[in-house]
């Protein structure tokens, strides 16, 4: 049949809500139809439409509404014309969606969905056009995690009806079940989201993008609620094509939830499977397309919300029994041990009422037990299967399957061969045995962290000591056994190597001997003879030769098991004589007024010398004179050199003392002639601090005071008042010297007029 064009019937439901119009509440919805028959001349068909909306019981959002209005469009592609509006419709059914009762899961109490259904009939013309139906309303649940701004995003639900479907009086598919209200994170979804079709047409399923329409305009008394961005858009002005919702990356219409494995839908069966891993609320769109003889008749689009929560399993069958396979079966391998104990680690233990075990031992022999743990005595080599059931026969049960492979015994073993006193390789020979076919793998582990996979390796240890060597042997059944041996590996070094830090020293001379012989450690006996009558047992010693001379050095090394090696170094260390440095200087107490100092070399057995004056001046003179540029402590270093070149050094500190020289006159004549007009102290004042001078008359009255040593008394009271009479006055001066000493002076001065 030739497809001419497409008409969409868009049923736009405008919900007039009590309370806040924009209250977020929408969880999902879908639209279906059934054909009621043709009119008398077969120019039209009567269809009954069923619109189902789902709301969140815990969102605090708007309720279902009466006086709803529906809009109808026709068109094709991206061009649609307004056709009609069906107004004043009330919902006919209202009920809570049952939460699937899983007795083995602690059901969360904060999730719930309510369903409302609107039904009406409408006659559509058979005119070669296609029709579509949709619904617009704001807003979605704001806690949705896979959309941008879900609380400001409205919803549009639509169904497509082809002209061919109208001509055939076709019914749309209808989903059989609503998705579960909640699903558990890290558990397989495995939900059958299939639909039924009365005409047995071919149905194809896919994840598709939910559609959006409307917005928050007019939600609080401002703006136009009927605008295309309002909470209840007017279908006469606002119609398809509706935009898909804006998924938040990495989510998208074909991958709305993520997961590991990713949550997907089977295109043939409609089964949604996968394991969501992150808690949250996710908007998911599912489309089912209806085909007959390869012709698309309709497309039903459901928009719903998955609540992924952390579930607490009430009982979980779990065994400490070896390798877990797919979370269902436990594999136990026993090599040579016919008695196998399986420890039961199932939980939550407070909800476990009973344990039921069975094991098939073959030949009609079956073990049954009700203990928590189980010990099985296997009759012989072979494979045995069994199971452990928690709370058997109750509504909350769980099962763990167990398979035991009993293989023949094996034993790991090896022997060693090496020269105990020579630092060479150790040979290892595998002696492992098995009752199976053969040993197929060897893993050698050495004390110093190295490994080897040869059957019979050779190995040289990096350090001496009691070496631990382990061998893990594996047979063709993958049975393993481990053996460990301690090997006393204490050879003496094949070559004694000593490195002194120097061969020539000046008495008393310190020589460091670095023992580079290998292998040795602190467990070895080390005997040194330094050739001057002294010895030590240190590994790498330092030694001081007190007297000049030529010395031989001997070294003996004895391992902890008695192996010995030694070496002599004749006339190895030379120790030369050195002078004794000393000097004197004059004057004994130099100061700021006498900074030139004479130095005299008093060194003994000195050939030459070098002077260093505080790293400011260096000279090779024997008895130099040096003038210091400042006061303070200065380091004087004299290096005296013996004729052998050996030096000796002496360091002395010289104090160039800073001084203050302050004196005052005994009379002054403040007559204004410019000569001796003020009473003022003089001298060398560098370094002087906290100066104070006071003047008193004969009655003890203070008539002048200053803190400036460069301002004197002019004969007036405080230098500004009346002239003081001629006579004798008392003065007092206090100050702190350069090194913090407090100085006081007191005397008399005569004022003459």
Any overview of this molecule?
There is one protein chain. It is flat, with a radius of gyration of 53 Å. The longest helix is centred in the first third of the chain and has 5 residues, at 163-167. It has 753 residues and is an all-beta fold. The model is unreliable at 1-23 (pLDDT under 50). The protein has six domains: 6-309, no CATH class; 314-407, Sandwich (Immunoglobulin-like); 410-489, Sandwich (Immunoglobulin-like); 498-573, Sandwich (Immunoglobulin-like); 583-656, Immunoglobulin-like; 661-751, Immunoglobulin-like (Sandwich).
Keywords:
Immunoglobulin-like; disordered N terminus; 6-stranded mixed β-sheet; 9-stranded mixed β-sheet; 48% strand; 60 strands; 6 domains; 753 residues; flat; mainly beta
Q: Give the mean pLDDT.
A: 89
**Main beta sheet:** 9 strands, mixed
Overall form? flat
Number of separate domains:
6
Rg computed from alpha carbons, rounded to a whole number of angstroms: 53 Å
**How much helix is in the residues?**
under 10%
How many β-strands, per DSSP? 60
- In angstroms, what separates the terminal alpha carbons? 143 Å
Proportion of residues in β-strands: over 45%
Structural class: mainly beta
The number of helical runs is: 1
Indicate the low-confidence ranges by residue numbers: 1-23
What's the gist of this structure?
The chain has 753 residues and is mainly β. The model is unreliable at 1-23 (pLDDT under 50).
């Amino acid at each position: 049949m030739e497809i001419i064009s497409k008409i969409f019937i868009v049923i736009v439901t405008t919900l007039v809500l009590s309370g806040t119009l924009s209250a977020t509440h929408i969880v999902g919805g879908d639209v279906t139809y059934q054909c009621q028959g043709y009119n008398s001349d077969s120019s039209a068909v009567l269809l009954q439409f069923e619109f189902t909306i789902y709301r969140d019981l815990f969102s605090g959002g708007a309720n279902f509404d009466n006086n709803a209005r529906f809009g109808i469009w026709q068109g094709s592609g991206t061009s649609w014309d307004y056709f009609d509006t069906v107004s004043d419709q009330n919902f006919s059914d209202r009920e809570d969606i049952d939460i699937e009762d899983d007795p083995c899961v602690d059901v969360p109490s904060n999730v719930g969905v309510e369903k409302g259904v609107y039904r009406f009939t409408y006659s559509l013309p058979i005119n070669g056009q296609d029709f579509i139906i949709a619904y617009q309303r704001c807003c979605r649940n704001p806690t949705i995690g896979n959309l941008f701004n879900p609380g400001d995003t409205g919803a549009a639900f639509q169904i497509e009806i082809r002209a061919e479907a109208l001509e055939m009086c076709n019914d749309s598919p209808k989903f059989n079940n609503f998705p579960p209200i909640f699903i558990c994170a890290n558990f397989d979804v495995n939900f059958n989201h299939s639909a039924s079709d009365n005409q047995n047409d071919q149905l194809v399923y896919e994840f598709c993008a939910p559609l959006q329409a409307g917005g928050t305009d007019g939600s609080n008394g401002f703006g136009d609620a009927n605008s295309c961005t309002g909470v209840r858009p007017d279908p006469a002005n606002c119609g398809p094509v509706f935009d898909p919702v804006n998924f938040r990356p990495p989510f998208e219409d074909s991958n709305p939830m993520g997961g590991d494995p990713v949550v997907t839908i089977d295109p043939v069966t409609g089964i949604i499977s996968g394991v969501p891993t992150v808690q949250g609320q996710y908007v998911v769109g599912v489309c089912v397309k209806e085909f007959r003889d390869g012709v698309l008749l309709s497309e039903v689009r459901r928009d719903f919300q998955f609540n992924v929560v952390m579930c607490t399993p009430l009982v979980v069958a779990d065994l400490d029994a070896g390798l877990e396979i797919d979370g269902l079966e436990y594999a136990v391998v026993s090599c040579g041990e016919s008695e196998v104990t399986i420890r039961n680690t199932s939980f939550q233990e407070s909800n476990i009422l009973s344990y039921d075990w069975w094991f098939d031992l073959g030949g009609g022999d079956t073990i049954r037990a009700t203990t928590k743990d189980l010990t099985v005595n296997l009759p012989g080599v072979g494979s045995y299967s069994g199971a452990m059931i928690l709370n058997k026969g109750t509504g909350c049960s769980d099962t763990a399957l167990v398979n035991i492979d009993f293989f023949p015994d094996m034993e790991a073993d090896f022997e060693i061969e090496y020269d105990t006193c020579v630092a060479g390789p150790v040979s290892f020979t595998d002696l492992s045995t098995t009752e199976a076919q053969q040993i197929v793998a060897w893993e050698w582990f050495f004390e110093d962290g190295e490994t080897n996979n040869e059957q019979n390796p050779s190995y040289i240890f990096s350090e001496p000591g009691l070496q631990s060597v382990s061998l893990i042997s594996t047979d063709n059944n993958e049975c393993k056994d481990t053996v460990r041996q301690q090997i006393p590996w204490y050879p003496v070094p094949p070559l004694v190597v000593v490195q002194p830090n120097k061969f020539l020293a000046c008495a008393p001379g310190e020589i460091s001997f670095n023992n580079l012989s290998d292998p040795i450690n602190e467990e070895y006996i080390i005997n040194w003879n330094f050739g001057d009558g002294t010895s030590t047992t240190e590994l790498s010693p330092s030694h001081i030769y007190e007297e000049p001379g030529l010395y031989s050095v001997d070294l003996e090394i004895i391992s902890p098991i008695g192996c010995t090696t030694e070496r002599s170094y004749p006339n190895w260390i030379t120790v030369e004589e050195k002078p004794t440095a000393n000097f004197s200087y004059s004057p004994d107490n130099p100061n700021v007024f006498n900074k030139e100092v004479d130095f005299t070399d008093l060194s003994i057995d000195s050939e030459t010398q070098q002077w260093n004056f505080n790293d400011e001046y260096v000279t090779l003179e024997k008895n130099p004179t040096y003038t210091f540029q400042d006061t303070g402590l200065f380091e004087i270093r004299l290096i005296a050199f013996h004729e052998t070149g050996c030096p000796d050094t002496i360091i002395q500190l010289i104090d160039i003392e800073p001084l203050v020289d302050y004196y005052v006159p005994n009379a002054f004549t403040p007559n204004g002639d410019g000569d001796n007009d003020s009473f003022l102290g003089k001298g060398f004042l560098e370094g002087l601090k906290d100066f104070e001078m006071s003047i008193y008359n004969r009655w003890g009255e203070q008539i002048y005071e200053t803190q400036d040593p460069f301002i004197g008394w002019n004969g007036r009271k405080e230098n500004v008042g009346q002239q003081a009479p001629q006579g004798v006055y008392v003065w007092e001066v206090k100050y702190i010297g350069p090194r913090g000493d407090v100085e006081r002076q007191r005397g008399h001065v005569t004022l003459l007029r």
